[in-house]
Model the fold of this input.
Amino acid sequence: MSSRRKATGGFTLLEVLVALVVLGVSFVTIFELFQGGLQALSASRQHTLAFMHAREKLEELTLEDRPAAGERRGTFEDGFRWETLVSLYPLPQIEDEKLEMETFQLTARVFYRRIGRERSVELNTLKLVLPEPKTIQHKDKL
Done:
């Protein structure tokens, strides 16, 4: 009889170890991709909330009849900080016409922290304020 081993058709220990290493690397890669997706989802959620808060503050300013010029600050219940800025916005004058209206620039900023850095969302718009209409009094004829 020869000293050669008889082939049984199974896998060698080396083949099993290589397969386990490939499987382990695949699982780690899939896990990192999944984790990256969760982080992107969290970042998107925070940015969307900041955008909604900024829009809310801008809507509050646009609903005021005549917004007061200046800066305001505060914090939302969920920890996002906000600031608004109202300033007069100069319009170019048309020749020989005096426009009797005021234009305000409205700015709303919302700040939040993401991975140790402060980030922000800023929205701007203009608001045109027309003067109060003048009333004309008529005398009643009898």
